[in-house]
Specification:
By secondary structure, this protein is α+β, with helices and mostly antiparallel strands. The protein contains 20 helices and 25 strands. The protein has an eleven-stranded mixed β-sheet with strand order 1-3-2-6-8-7-12-13-11-9-10, with helices on both faces. Strand 23 and strand 24 form a beta hairpin. Helix 14 crosses helix 18 and helix 18 crosses helix 19. The chain is globular and about 80 Å long.
Length: 693
Amino acid sequence: MNRLGRIYGILFVLMLSLSWSRLFAGEGNTPRLRTLDFSPFQKSLDNFSNRRSTEIEDLLLDATILDLQAALQAGKLTSEELTLYFLARIQSFDESLRSYIELNPNALSEAKTADILRAKGIVHSQLHGIPINLKDNINTKSPLHTTGGAEILLNHSPEADAKLVIKLREAGAVILGKASLSEFAGALTMDPTGANAVSGAGVNPYNPELEVSGSSSGSAISTTAYLTSASVGTETSGSLISPASQNGCVSMKPSLGMVNGAGVIPLIRFQDSAGPITRNVTDAAIMLAALDDKDVDYTSRLNKNSLEGVSVGVLRDEILWSSGPALFPLEFLSEQHAIMQRIDRGLNKTHANSQAIQLPADELTSLSRLIFIGLAQDTIGYLINAGAPVTSLTDLKNYNEQQPAIRVPFGQLLVHYGCSLTGEFANRVSFSEDNLSNEYQELALLLRKQAAETLDKIFADNQIDLIVSLGNDQSALYATAGYPAINIPLGLDRDGSPIGVTLIGKQGEDGKLLSRAFAFEQATKYRINPGKPLKQIIKSHGIVFRITSPGIHFGNSYTLTASSAHHPNTVVRENLTGLISRIEARDLDQDGLPELFVFSEDKTAGESMLVYSSDNQTLLKKIEIPKLTDRAEHHGKDHYSLTDTCLIRTFPLYSEDADDQHSTGIFRRITYRLNAMKFEQKDTTQPSGFDSR
């Protein structure tokens, strides 16, 4: 099975001519149709101290849910505090990341209830009091909505929670809200992936220009960005594994039937499966135990030695050639060769018995057809039951076209394709569209049988117990067959994009698969948080400044602490629009106390700066840099520099033509001096035709 065949199987072939970069090429994101409502928690958020937030952040950085439970049980943490921490981060970051569609107004009260029960000695499960979110194609009753990301369901609140949500509530989990997704599980458009009408397009925490994939994009983004402890996504073909791989986290697609799918907006009801998205395998095991219909403690079965002696089949050629033609004999120079080495090192460390295997040439050529028949049958059936004003896929297309800017801001090319495809399908089998449902079921079960037979043959012929693949390359096989698969992060590629290895197990062996994934994870620990960790200490004039960013802020947030023999310890926390480029301490006003200058750089907006000075009360009093009074020719791209007594601001001048604004190549310089805790403009040089930096 070649890569184009696999991509065809999961729909990407339909969109190869479309560019992900469109969203970030100046067009910007779309407005939310429903803004995130923080009013139920705002008072508590306002009273949530920076110091406590920092303490929780330090606790969370490498923690599993088991670690959080230990802290909760020891009284070092409360569910209320943990929930506030995530809500504060959502408020700070999600307008940029777009990983949430809606917040649960009862989240904080649910957390408080969990704390009260814990104080009485009642702990329902390992998820008790743990904040999680749910992909917004999973039914949640009022006051929450279930939209599938579609405007047509914007105000839809099902009468009851999905079966899996009931189980999570019984386990004591706190529901933070609903995660964004590719609208209707990716069957509307994939330009870009992770986009929907309600919340816009999801953004990769590692770099906004990177792919987020779908359809469980919001689940992956929010999990890796520490906007939740864990998430529940869903998969039809690659929709759990792919976004986890692209956003640097763990995801598991369980065996078909392990998790009750009642109450999930369907795409292919014969194939859909909900599953966990987490930051580590331990949390995936905890989440699956709460989600599935079995009474199994998967965490107790996790074993670092569970891959020892296991026969593993590695799709080596598929991995080495996945980004293009073979480079033999120079394949060792390729990015894919470096990725393959990481996988080999992990398998060697776990003492697995690995061998290279090949896939059969057969393709599941009807899978994309099946997906669109499912959209016409199952998804439209859900809309009809929800009271939406449509009775067919054509109705949905026409409804969206009435207000395209609001209802389909990213287009609906796949719906157009689906309308054509369902008609062709009905004509081909000589059935009316009324009989399409029966033929749909026959095709779905046939493809499942074919995929299962293919995987069984691979396992048997090679005498292996596990298949190793890359990302979601084999989703057309494992997802269609209903076999379990799990993604484990492999770190970042040369361009800084997350990548993941996928382990595929035998049907029903979910526990074994989790334990083997745990062994690989513990042997490698390849996962890297978004953002580069920062830690710097500066001593000046008897004051010690400590600045840290743990690497979960995407480079745009930090904690600054200052202390001296004569001043109490002071802590501030700041959000930035770019990456910290340098930090300097100077005494510009010559008063014997230093000022701290934090420079940050954004590749589109240029440089910005935060300045702190001292007075008799505090060491970290922020000093504002004056706003420009004449901004007619100023369009950002600032650069700042320091002398012993002055702050210098340099920026390019732009043309005055409103229809053709461009840099003239001429720069202006403004010099500021510091006096009585205020910056005063000292002088402005005449524009010059060179950059004075």
